[in-house]
Design brief:
heterodimer, A: about 325 residues, mainly alpha, 2 domains, about 65% helix, extended, B: about 500 residues, two-stranded antiparallel sheet, about 80% helix
Chain lengths: ~325, ~500
């Protein structure tokens, strides 16, 4: 049974709006989405010419190109040198590689007792089902300790280079404002996609980190996934939203805690190992989530450092501060 | 196991952890932490040195619960411990010597980042010294490279950015070649541990198997490290990197970073491949040729330079040339001379950088050669220190440079094919050194007219005004005199250490 409703009320219903959209009489995105296209980076010809001229003059002044026959001569021969050097290197390496032991042969020197023990006793000695994780975080943990500090120091170098500690840039513009010129503002499509995608991405990253000792995965890959998720969230919702939970200070504290935890955990195991003291840390049942001794904790530490590094790199290259 | 034996591992982890900690501290506390860490590590390394000399035997420290070919390990001998002590001393003096410049040239908020770099640099140097595993060495070479880049560009000017970019490109090329070399070695021997590679390499050499890849691996590693330590044709990154970075960076880079790499090369020669195989491979002849070329060309470039910091930087090219020439002689005596020169050059070059900054301070921060006239009278301590450094570089008796040149000359007698070239190169190089260093010393002690000083507004600087820098200078002078006058025990240590390497 149908009933009659007034036209005013009918205009509020979903079916009316659907009909309107199908007819094309009203676009639902008008007035709700900012339709401004992204501003292109435009530079008029004069500034380009001026910039190039300044650059040339600067080079000439710094290197004194008029009188410096070494540099000017080298610049002329540069391409020749490049070609000769590359050809030489390629030829030398190709020849050398052809003399190396053939790939995958059972008699090769690399198939020795070192790899043998990793494969045969890895599970029993480290408790990690994933032998690669057992190798990098238990057998050769010192290398990985250095490697995670490589990431940390790389972030610090980027901070030195790109962090703007003044809130205004040299033209007197606020850095937040000048960041917004070239970036999309509240893009609904991006925001909707991000709302759907970011939680699974981050959860997947956490899964990869936590399952690092049980299957393919680990701190480096999982951290990279989480970092990618954070970058997507930042692109969709802007700095104001992300800075509620992730600022430069958060990064500092997280990385200090993670690296400190890593250092302490490994100091303990290095110390006990070298002094032949029995380690207090149980290996647990292989295959269980809480197993394989310190590996799980180390994976989490590495994951935090990697995620923070990825996100900080992105923020520094985009805005220069957070 | 005695508790002292844990010290190398504790010092590596202490400096490693001091890096992240500095990132949450402000500049002032980061500096204090850094100086504290360097002091503690220096003291611990001295204790280790005393212990190793006492027992007369090197020892292995397992990093973890798994013994060597499976896990990581570090190895401590006399040479390693002595180098660690020495590097700590030099680094401490460089950090306190450049404190004024650093605080003026680096942004307030980025001060603590500087100390992160210094801490991790120290950590990587210690790890390079102690490690017994080739791949661990590579990981810490990475840290070393990145932190050196940070040290260059933290003084943010156009020239330092350019210098840092150039340094990074060249240095990464070097790292890449080193890594390729390590990969080759791994696929030939199946090991990453130094002692095991050496055993396997001896077997390969005896059977004549894989001769070409082994040779290529040696070449790749030697060239990679030569690029990173600025051997002559690969030196183009050096003058800008040393000349324009802030004072303590320049001093640390010239005296420690390049020396760390060279020490790694010594370890590769002795502990990874075996010196006999290296000698037979003729790779050292190439290093010898480039070393000799560097000795001459570095000095020639320095003579043409009018900027005092760049002049000192070019002089490093010449001194690195000496070190590689010593390797090229292919004798143990040559190796001892080279290692002594590493020590002597590190002590002298950092002295020269700090002294040069004192001289330029007294000349209104101008580094132009002609503005330095009479600067030795305006800043007496820096003038005296610069004179000491110059005399040492030229090879004046009493100072460390003399001993190393003497050792090089003696070592040359042991190789009858290369003795003539070495002697001639040494003679030419000493004369060229004298030309530019004595020229500068005479310039800074030529009295300048009073009107000119008033006109340009040069100030006199009293040693008491800058206590940190003065202390550093006095310690550097003392170190130089010590190395020059009491060289016997140092040479003895190096000799014992090298014997332990086999």
């Amino acid at each position: 049974m149908s009933r009659k409703i007034p036209e005013k009320e009918y205009e509020k219903t979903v079916s009316f709006r659907l009909k309107q959209w199908l007819d094309g009489t009203k676009d639902p995105f008008v007035d709700t989405v900012e339709m401004k296209p992204q501003e292109e980076f435009l530079e008029d010809d004069n500034t380009v010419i001026k910039r190039n001229k300044e650059r040339r003059q600067r080079l000439e002044r710094v290197y004194d190109l008029a009188n410096n026959w070494e540099v000017s001569g080298f610049q002329k021969l540069y391409k020749v040198f490049c070609a000769v050097f590359c050809l030489f290197l390629v030829a030398m390496l190709l020849i050398a590689v052809s003399y190396l032991p053939s790939y995958g042969h059972a008699e090769n020197p690399v198939n020795n007792e070192v790899a043998g023990r990793y494969i045969e006793k890895g599970l029993q000695e480290t408790g990690a089902v994933n032998i690669v994780t057992g190798m990098i975080l238990d057998y050769r943990a010192f290398d990985t300790l250095g490697e995670s500090h490589v990431l940390f120091i790389a972030t610090c170098t980027v901070l030195i280079l790109l962090r703007k500690d003044k809130k205004k840039d040299e033209n007197g513009k606020d850095i937040e404002v000048s960041d917004r010129i070239y970036e999309p503002k509240n893009d609904l499509i991006l925001q909707t996609a991000a709302r759907v995608l970011v939680p699974p991405i981050i959860i997947f990253g956490v899964y990869v980190i936590l399952g690092g000792h049980l299957g393919p995965g680990g701190g480096f890959s999982g951290g990279a996934i989480i970092g990618a998720g954070l970058i997507l969230y930042l692109n969709a919702f802007g700095f104001q939203k992300t800075e509620r939970f992730f600022t430069g200070k958060t990064y500092k504290i997280l990385s200090v805690c993670a690296l400190g935890c890593y250092c302490l955990a490994k100091s303990y195991s290095f110390y006990t190992g070298a002094n032949h003291i029995e380690s207090m840390i149980p290996l647990g049942t292989p295959g269980a989530i809480l197993s394989s001794g310190l590996i799980l904790i180390l994976n989490i530490c590495v994951g935090i450092v990697v995620a923070g590094t990825m996100y900080t790199f992105y923020v520094m290259f985009r805005k220069g501060g957070y | 196991m005695a508790f002292v034996q844990n010290f190398p591992f504790i010092s590596i982890l202490l400096s490693l952890f001091a890096g992240p900690i500095s990132s949450v501290l402000d500049g002032k506390w980061a500096k204090r932490l850094n100086l504290f860490v360097i002091t503690v590590i220096g003291a611990m390394s001295a204790a280790v040195l005393a212990f190793v000399i006492g027992t007369g035997q090197e020892y292995i420290f397992t990093m973890g619960h798994f013994p060597a070919p499976w896990g990581n390990e570090i190895r401590v001998g006399i040479l390693e411990a002595a180098m660690a002590v020495f590097f700590c001393v030099i680094m401490f003096l460089c950090v306190i010597g450049g404190v004024l410049e650093r605080e003026a040239e680096i942004e307030e908020t980025k001060q603590n980042l500087y100390y992160i770099m210094v801490n991790l640099l120290l950590c990587s140097l210690l790890a390079l010294i102690y490690t017994n595993d080739l791949f661990t060495a590579y990981v810490f070479v990475e840290i070393n490279t990145i932190s050196a880049c940070g040290l260059i560009m933290i003084r943010q000017t156009g020239r330092t950015f350019e210098a840092a970019t150039r340094y990074m490109i060249m240095s990464l090329l070097g790292s890449g070649l080193l890594l390729l070399g390590i990969c080759f070695l791994y696929s030939l021997t199946g090991h990453l541990l130094m002692s095991n590679i050496k055993e396997q390499a001896a077997v390969l050499q005896a059977s004549g198997q894989y001769h070409i890849p082994l040779l290529v691996a040696i070449c790749l590693m030697s060239v990679g490290i030569a690029i990173k330590s600025a051997l002559y044709p690969f030196h183009t990154w050096l003058p800008d990197a040393y000349g324009y970075s802030t004072l303590s960076s320049a001093a640390i880079l010239s005296s420690l970073v390049s020396k760390g790499y060279i020490f790694l090369l010594v370890k590769i020669f002795y502990r990874v491949i075996g010196f006999d195989i290296i000698r037979e491979s003729k790779v050292i002849n190439i290093l010898f040729v480039f070393g000799v070329a560097g000795m001459i060309m570095g000095s020639v470039n320095a003579i043409r330079e009018n900027d005092i910091n760049r002049m000192i930087a070019y002089s490093s090219v010449a001194q690195i040339g000496y070190i590689y020439m010593g390797f090229g002689l292919g004798t143990t005596a040559g190796m001892i001379a080279s290692i002594y020169h590493i020590v002597s050059h590190a002590a002298t070059k950092s002295l020269l950088f700090v002294a040069a900054s004192g001289i330029t301070d007294a000349s209104g921060k101008s580094r132009d050669f002609f503005d330095l006239t009479g600067a030795g009278y305006r800043n007496k301590l820096a003038g005296a220190a610069f004179t000491v450094g110059s005399l040492s570089m030229v090879g004046f008796p009493m100072f460390s440079g003399f001993i190393s040149k003497l050792l090089f000359a003696q070592a040359a007698m042991g190789n009858k094919h290369k003795v003539m070239i070495t002697m001639i190169a040494l003679a030419i190089s000493v004369i060229l050194n004298a030309v530019y260093f004595m020229k500068t010393v005479i310039r800074i002690y030529t009295p300048e007219k009073r009107e000119v000083i008033m006109d340009k507004g040069f100030e006199e600087i009293n040693a008491w005004e800058q206590p940190a820098k003065s202390t550093a200078l006095i310690c550097f002078i003392a170190l130089n005199l010590f190395l020059g006058l009491l060289s016997e025990p140092v040479i003895g240590l190096i000799q014992h250490g090298l014997e332990m390497f086999d």
